[in-house]
Specification:
Elements lengths: L1 E6 L5 E8 L2 E4 L9 E2 L2 E3 L5 E3 L1 H5 L8 E2 L13 H6 L6 E4 L6 E4 L5 E2 L1 H20 L5 E6 L5 H13 L3 E7 H8 L9 E8 L4 E9 L2 E10 L4 H20 L7 H17 L5 E10 L2 E8 H7 L2 H4 L3 H11 L1
Parallel strand pairs: 1-11, 11-12
Antiparallel strand pairs: 1-2, 2-3, 2-4, 5-6, 5-7, 8-9, 9-10, 13-14, 14-15, 16-17
Helix pairs in contact: 3-4, 6-7
Family: Belongs to the heat shock protein 70 family.
Keywords: ATP-binding, Chaperone, Coiled coil, Endoplasmic reticulum, Hydrolase, Nucleotide-binding, Signal
Pfam family, one: HSP70
Length: 323
């Protein structure tokens, strides 16, 4: 069967859909969820967990839980973006002997490339599709951010191959979004602006659609502007606040940091429906509890929401391209 696998970093999650009856149907996983956390964990018992099970044990096993491979895939060790990201990962990332690939190491002394970690997630999505269809899945279309370069696209395709899939095509996420909304069925030529603020990236793309053909006229984005980055900025605020009040720095305690990050994410979600959210963590650091309040006003002050609205750059770029 022919599947569309959607590999995205919204809350570090992936989705899988199957093309049936002229439309794409997103398939629920074994937990009944239509999105699966892109987490891979290795337990002390030697078991490998993928998806919800891996994410659920993050705070108790942070050094052996790998996530956010999409920010590493297809990049070299010397990439400034990689060097910035690894400062916040609880797991270790090192250069390979040949200097071309990143090696993701768990605390169990196992090493994997980002492609292999991504392949594990894709395998999970493949199994989800096969359980739903009750047949083998061999071919897939995989979506990537529009700003992905050739190396990142090839690395993503390699991950699909490792997962046992024949990757028919790598397509841009804005194009996939336009198809999902049925914009390819529109008559005549249209210009469509796709605004994609995800869990780890931000993209604005201008598409020209005519006769079922999509052309990316202009695209711009930020690989470090999304929900994850909002969480990181709020977390840093509370870490500094905690140090100011207690004189203690929690940054070197991976479990404390991951506990705080988890609660910050929950508080951020709560702010969608209320003006403030309380963050309470028992035995946060060296037996001490954590208790703070995050207001919507403080969240907006700390974060990069305004930056996400600067899509005028893409329109200016598009005018140059089109005229």
């Amino acid at each position: 069967s022919f599947c569309i696998l959607f590999l995205n970093t919204i809350l570090f999650c992936s989705s899988v859909g199957v093309f049936k009856n002229g439309r794409v149907e997103i398939i629920a996983n074994d937990q009944g969820n239509r999105i699966t956390p892109s987490y891979v964990a290795f337990t002390t018992e030697g078991e490998r967990l993928i998806g919800d099970a891996a994410k659920n044990q993050l705070t108790s096993n942070p050094e052996n839980t790998v996530f956010d491979a999409k920010r590493l895939i297809g990049r070299t060790w010397g990439d400034s973006s990689v060097q910035q990201d690894i400062k916040y990962f609880p797991f270790k990332v090192n250069a390979s002997a040949r200097g071309r690939k990143l090696i993701v190491g768990s605390g169990q002394m196992k090493t994997f490339t980002p492609e292999e970690i991504s392949a594990m997630v894709l395998t999970k999505m493949k199994e989800t599709a096969e359980a739903y269809l009750e047949e083998k899945v061999t071919h897939a279309v995989v979506t990537v951010p529009a700003y992905f370069n050739d190396a990142q696209r090839q690395a993503t395709k390699d991950a699909g191959t490792i997962a046992g899939l024949i990757v028919m095509r790598i397509i841009n996420e804005p194009t996939a979004a336009a198809i999902a909304y049925g914009l390819d069925k529109s008559d005549g030529v249209k210009n469509i602006l796709v605004f994609d603020l995800g869990g780890g990236t931000f993209d604005v793309s201008l598409l020209t659609i005519g006769n079922g053909v999509f052309e990316v006229v202009a695209t711009n984005g930020d690989t470090h502007l999304g929900g994850e980055d909002f969480d990181q900025r709020v977390m840093e605020h509370f870490i500094k606040l905690y140090k100011k009040k207690t004189g203690k720095d929690v940054r070197k305690d991976n479990r404390a940091v991951q506990k705080l990050l988890r609660e910050v994410e929950k508080a951020k979600r709560a702010l969608s429906a209320q003006h403030q959210a309380h963050i309470e963590i028992e035995s946060f650091f060296k037996g001490e509890d954590f208790s703070e309040t995050l207001t919507r006003a403080k969240f907006e002050e700390l974060n990069m929401v305004r930056e996400a609205l600067l899509y005028q750059q893409i329109l200016n770029k598009a005018r140059t391209t089109m005229y």
